[in-house]
Amino acid sequence: MESTPSGPRVAVLGPVLVEDRTGALAEPSGTRGKSLIVALALARGGRSVPALVEDLWDDAPPRQERAALQTLVSRVRTSSADGILESTPSGYALTVGAHGTDLDLAAHRLELARSALAAGAPADALREAASGLALWRGEPGLELAGSRLGEELARTAAELRTELLVVRARAARESGDTATALADLRELLRLRPLDESLHAEQIRALADAGRRSDALLAFADLKDALRDRLGTRPGAELVALNARLLAEEDQREEDQRDNERETADQEPASPRRVRIGLRTAPNACSAASTTWRPWRTWWPPPA
């Protein structure tokens, strides 16, 4: 499997951090410095000066836009490792290498997990998806709340995390870890309560966990919700899945009845009750057995 870096040099999936001159991750100075890092991380490449000015100052740009941006970049560079923030012909870019931001690394883990699932390796997919989800350290964009950049980061991170949860849920189910699968699916269904593909995965996980009654009930609940809220019915995939579970349940009950009949046929007949007793009175038997009646003996024998 393709190797990935041990850790990102820029992190935005939580508090914004940048590799400093000691090699550790540290916060860049000021809200606008963090905004600069986020804007470049979201761009996944270079960003022009006019675009960065719009990102950082919204509708109130400074009078000398380029000079103000250069000052901000210099301040961020002062506390960052050499070479992380570089100039381009049109603006600036993060030069941290492939998957050098946690956002890019999480997207890479998602690609690896999907590829592993497609290749029939759910255990590998589970490991990659879990590694991607472990990159979250808090709520992305919280430090930039109320800004367009903060909202874009929050939305991008939420979509990526959702896709990682979807892959982990399926990989966990196919690996036999139905507890993890069902926990992820509960979270996903809170976000997307009428997503039929998620409901199908939940029904499969419940069935694999031996909870077939719950799986059939989940389909019935979804059917009611779709009818009441959207005026629609479950799609063909869900209907076929429910029909298969019903048929398997019917077959299981029929097999159980057959086993019960077979067991009943094989049971031996109840033995006849035999009375065990004495044909003579106990006292008579005792007397007969204890009374000594000697034979008449003649001695010496007659001549």
Strand and helix map with partners:
Elements (H helix, E strand, L loop, with lengths): L9 E2 L5 E3 L5 E2 L4 H13 L3 E2 H9 L7 H14 L6 E3 L3 E4 L7 H17 L3 H12 L14 H27 L3 H14 L4 H13 L3 H18 L6 H31 L15 H9 L13
Antiparallel strand pairs: 1-2, 2-3, 4-6, 5-6
Helix pairs in contact: 1-6, 4-5, 4-6, 5-6, 6-7, 6-8, 7-8, 8-9, 8-10, 9-10
The CATH C-level class name of the largest domain: Mainly Alpha
Task: Give the helix proportion (percent range).
Answer: 55-70%
Count every beta strand, where a strand is a DSSP E run of 2 or more residues. 6
End-to-end span in angstroms? 121 Å
Strand content: 5-15%
How many separate helices?
Answer: 11
pLDDT below 50 for ≥5 consecutive residues: which ranges? 274-299
Tell me the structural class.
mainly alpha
Q: Predict the CATH topology of the largest domain.
A: Serine Threonine Protein Phosphatase 5, Tetratricopeptide repeat
What Rg, in angstroms, do the CA atoms define?
Answer: 39 Å
For the residues shown, what is the average pLDDT? 87
The CATH architecture of the largest domain can be given as Alpha Horseshoe
How many domains?
A: 3
Largest sheet descriptor: 3 strands, antiparallel
Strand order of the largest sheet: 1-2-3
- The 3D shape can be described as elongated
Order of helices and strands: EEEHEHHEEHHHHHHHH
